[in-house]
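Message: I would value a second opinion on how I read folds in token form. Give me a protein, with the fold worked out from its sequence. Write it directly below this note and I will take it from there.
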Amino acid sequence: MTPAARVAAAIEVLDRWLDGVPAEKALTGWARGARYAGSKDRAAVRDHVYDVLRRKGACEALGGADGRGLMLGLLRVQGVDPATVFTGEGHAPVPLSDAERQAPDASPDIWRDVPDWLHQPLRESLGAGASDIVGAMQTRAPLYLRVNARKASVNQAQELLLEDGVKTETCQAEMALKVTEGDRRLRQSSAYLDGLVEIQDLSVQLACAAVDWPQRGKILDYCAGGGGKALAIAAVSDATVFVHDAIAARMSDIPARASRAGVTLAEAMKPSVHAPYDLVLCDVPCSGSGTWRRDPEAKWRLTPGRLSELGQIQRHIVEQAQTLVQPGGRLVYMTCSLLDAENGAVVDSVVSAPEWDLLTSARFLPPEASDGFFLAVMRRSGNG
């Protein structure tokens, strides 16, 4: 496919997204009907779509509200002359109309790329740095890896990855690597296939490294999902790590991932059977506002009603988890949210009870931590 044909394909996908089809589903539907498209073509079209979703407000202001307008706006954001792409030649988009040739006089405003109703909550949650953080979310997030300390040192992992064409560099988390080249070769690399590295965002690694995980006893990952954090815990702790999720199907990949990593994770379909635990981790469902660099579609899906619903879910999960912590044990609360309503407000509801104390809390913010993430460690009174 030519670069212009890739733009035309992105327009098609964006129109489907605007009709209510999730971005990944729209991309998959296009790819199935475009057998001629190679892997590089599919990746380029996906990049166009997600670049638009990160900068949708700016793209709309500089081009228009439909798929064609959004891609027209993206080219202007990127400093590309749209007339060189919208030529009508081959599979390129049809030429620009006279009206489209006139670039709108839209002054730069990073807040256009966030839904209007979220402006105030973000400003209140992030304070003076709100604009800088929102601006950082306009760019694509790097790919980060966690080196499995059970199997390799950071240097060993780097050398093996490089043999397979994956270049990395160290960063602020002790066991983290930032992929600088060859990211599409990662899943075929021996370091990945043999469990020496796992894909894990930098902010998550920083948060996990900030927790003093028990070295014996029992730890429960109460909202385990795919098991990324449970694997990270098992790499540094000799405690028995249990995994649970309200939707068990989310954990379907955990056995294979644990086997590859060389660790054991115990499935707890009914967590109360194995209670009490020395530590319970709750990485709760949230708005995902800290991950908009990687999942920009999330900010356009979020509504005030959904945010309120998430708050109720978070409190319900925490209330259940509190009953599973032994006296003297700890509850670790995590979100990938930037919003106080999902972070401090929920923690306050826990420590308002006399038997709970807040030991520490931390917030990790883009771009330094790549994504936004929140962590709080609370202790239940009594002797553990």
The two ends are 63 Å apart (CA to CA).
